[in-house]
Amino acid sequence: MIFFTNHVLAVISFCMLIYLIGWAFMHTFFADIFKKASFGYKLGFSWTSGNVILGTIFFYLAYFEMFTTINVFRACLFLGIISGVIAGWSIVNPLRIKKQLVKIIPVAIIAFFFMHLIQHSLTAYLIDWDATAMWFLKAKAMFIHDGIHNNPYFDNTGLFDFSNKAYPFGIPLIMAGFFKMIAFFDDQVIQFYFLQYFLLIPILLYAFLKEHVQLSSISRIIIAIGLCMSPIFLNHAHSGYVDIPISLFFMTAMIAFMHAINEKTTREKNSWIGLMLLFGLFSVHVKNEGTTIIAALILVTILSGLLRRSLFTQRYILPITLVLGSIFLWKYFLHVSKIPFYLSASIPAMENFHRLKTSIFFYLEVFLDTRIQSLTTIPLLLVISYQFPRIVKLRKYIMFAPLLVLILQLCAYTYIYLITPLPFVVQLQTSFPRLLLQLLPCLYLVAIFQQKELQNTQKEES
Amino acid sequence: MKLNNIEKGLLPVLIVVFLINYHLYQWYDNSYVNAMQQLNAKPVENRYERIQSEQHYYEIYKIAQEYKGREELVVYIQDERGDDILDYSSTYYSNIGKLPDEDHTSVYLSELGLFVMYYFYPNFIPTYSVNQFADMTLQDGAIIISDKDLSIPELARIANTQLLEKLPQLPKNDALRVNRRPAKSYYLFKVQGQ
Predict the structure, then answer these.
(1) Pairing of strands B187-191, B164-166
(2) Dist. CA B99–CA A195, nearest whole Å
(3) Which of A68, A78, A229, B108 pairs as cysteine with B21 (C-beta 3.0–4.6 A)?
């Protein structure tokens, strides 16, 4: 049997540990919203927050040259014991087994549908370009060395420049933590870790549909699975690219933002905003695009009047501050180490403005290309086009807030294409399909959110 | 299962769209079953090695293991040049601070080169051209990884090629990665003494 060997069991245990840490964290810091959340939400939030906790702790260990095997093991053991007690109590205490099992059925159907993908993630070798050149090379550098300051990888020697040393390394750090614990750089089984992000996208979408639209479970499952069946999703499901992971971070941050808009009580509104900040901020450690999405989210949150002073007195401000602190330390490290980043210009040159037209046409081409997207984007475009004039007519512009975040993110991409010193067409063609992949689940959420708001408004009027 | 009026109209549309998507997804599923059959047919006891042996650059991985601590014996030759393999990031970083009228360097990195860098990390294996190879003093037992077949008659005029013994390679199989184009060939040689 090829599947059940030590490393396969180890990666499954590692993923379970991340869920457990996240579950305990959410139960401790965001109990008011987490207890009431559906099972799909609980899984999605547990996974992303588990990664935030582990990634942030690993970052501080690496920053202070303490990212050793024994410290990684100690941190995981400590977190595992604490989380096991908290999460175990939160699950066992309100035990209603029959009800709990019913909640698992949609998750089981989604997992069963992608069974071949799960098997493939445990039996595939590493081959894709960015995965090898950037993320796994960084993971190898952190696997071999115990920190970032005396790490030859970060020396400004001109070697390994193809791996873009200034790119974030949150996911490689988590991978390196796992490799340190098994004392082997297994670039195969770790793909199962990447697959968790992929599987949680339809699970979260299913849960979001359940919360927002009156549809039967069969329709919800069809929509949720349908999104992830497109070639672009399958190609990146566990290839080692971090576009699907950041897509899940965007998705969880957007779900939190949308709930914050709808929530009536200030306390819970604050909790959702806190969760949005936590996931949005950690996405800065996942990929560069995280910086622009958190900026867009904060801007739109302020414009929507959702940011209250009382947010800063809640206990979850502590983990948020720790994540923020790790971002500052990373940027400071890049600055003092003089590690170059390719986006040095901040004002686009006049002769670059012709790129606007090319970019926008290419966006449309990729968005409507069924060879890349299957039939996932065209129906979505029709739904949003149908909703748009109706919302304008109702003058409930707050409904556009989540869409505005995505539009701002798209504008940020366009701006980067205007200032990039790399060959523009090559960068556009190689990056935009994946940038769209990052935003597509959020676009689904936006369409569902707007539909719910439209139905609510119609009900109120009638 | 209770369907509301909107869903009674919506569900057939959803099912049709789903079936169209599923038709495309089936291609992935079938390719995967084919790939797994080939993988399971291999009698290798170690899981990592069994899967890795299907990787196109498996021999590079094996050389990196075998030559650990003796990396100075590994020579990497990249003959291919062109926009296809121009490494835009490295080229940009290596020209930072240069004026427009200064000579700009171009850095090329093929997929083979990438895997050489990856498997040999933390050691850096420099990249040489065929011309540089012609002027090299080769050490006995050195291993040459090249994207060009150095045993072709056109290169017989290069004295160093006479010292090389071509190493056999496993038949390449890209079945496990069902969603990508086949990779290019590469060649391995061993220096047999002068």
Answers:
(1) antiparallel
(2) 46
(3) A229
Residue B193 has pLDDT above 80, yes or no: no
At B194 the pLDDT is 55
**Do B117 and A137 count as a contact with CB atoms less than 8 A apart?**
yes
Other beta carbons within 10 Å of A313: 9
DSSP A215-234: --HHHHHHHHHHHTTSHHHH
Question: Smallest Cα–Cα separation from A320: which of A286, A277, A283?
Answer: A277
> Residues of A with CB below 8 A from B14's CB?
219, 222-223, 226
Average the pLDDT over each of A193-202, B160-169, B178-187 and give the range with the smallest value.
B178-187
Residue that the structure tokens 């899940």 belong to: A248
pLDDT, one tens digit per residue, over A7-22 is: 888 898 999 999 999 9
Q: Which of A338-342, B2-6, B145-149 shows the lowest per-residue confidence on average (mean pLDDT)?
A: B2-6
Pairwise CB contact (< 8 Å): B92 & A421: yes
Mean pLDDT of A76-96: 77
What pLDDT, on a 0 to 100 scale, did the predictor assign at position A116? 84
Question: Which residues on A lie below 8 Å from B21 (Cβ)?
Answer: 226, 229-230, 374-376
As a whole number of angstroms, the distance between CA B107 and CA B87 comes to 6
Q: Which of B7, B33, B122 sits opposite A219 (nearest CB)?
A: B7
Residue contact B93–A340, C-beta within 8 A: yes
For residue B36, the chain A residues in CB contact (below 8 A) are 119, 123
* pLDDT score at A1: 41
Partners of residue B128 on adjacent β-strands: B77
Cα separations in angstroms, B59 against A88, A188, B56, B129, B186: 47, 17, 8, 21, 10
Interface test with B, best of A127, A192, A386 (most B CBs within 10 A): A127
* Residue A28 scores a pLDDT above 70: yes
| Helix A243-262 × helix A289-303 angle, to 10° | 10
B18, B111, B180, B181: best mutation site toward chain A, by most A Cβ within 10 Å?
Answer: B18
Looking at residue B43, its pLDDT comes to 53
Q: What is the DSSP letter of A354?
A: T
What pLDDT score was predicted for residue A3? 47
Q: Distance between CA A444 and CA B5 in Å, rounded?
A: 22
Cβ contacts (< 8 Å) between B3 and chain A: which residues? 216
Strand partners, B188: B145
Supply the pLDDT for residue A121.
Answer: 87
Q: Helix A39-63 vs helix A97-113: angle between axes, to the nearest 10 degrees? A: 70
Three-state secondary-structure class, residue B128: strand
Please answer yes or no on whether B124 and A123 come within 8 Å at the CB atom: no
The rounded mean pLDDT for chain A is: 90
Q: Verify whether the Cβ–Cβ distance B51 to A123 is below 8 Å.
A: yes
* Residue A50 Cα, gap to closest chain B Cα (Å): 27
Gap from A269 CA to chain B (nearest CA, Å): 31
> Facing residues of A204 across strands?
none
Q: Say if residue A202 is preceded by a cis peptide, omega within 30 of 0.
A: no
Instruction: Compute the distance between CA of residue B5 and CA of residue A216 in angstroms, rounded to an integer.
Output: 12
- Does B118 contact A132 at a Cβ distance shorter than 8 Å? yes
Non-local CB neighbours of B97 within 8 Å, separated by 6+ positions: none
Nearest partner of B56 among B142, B127, B147, judged by Cα: B147
Half-sphere exposure of residue A59: CA atoms within 13 angstroms, side-chain side: 25
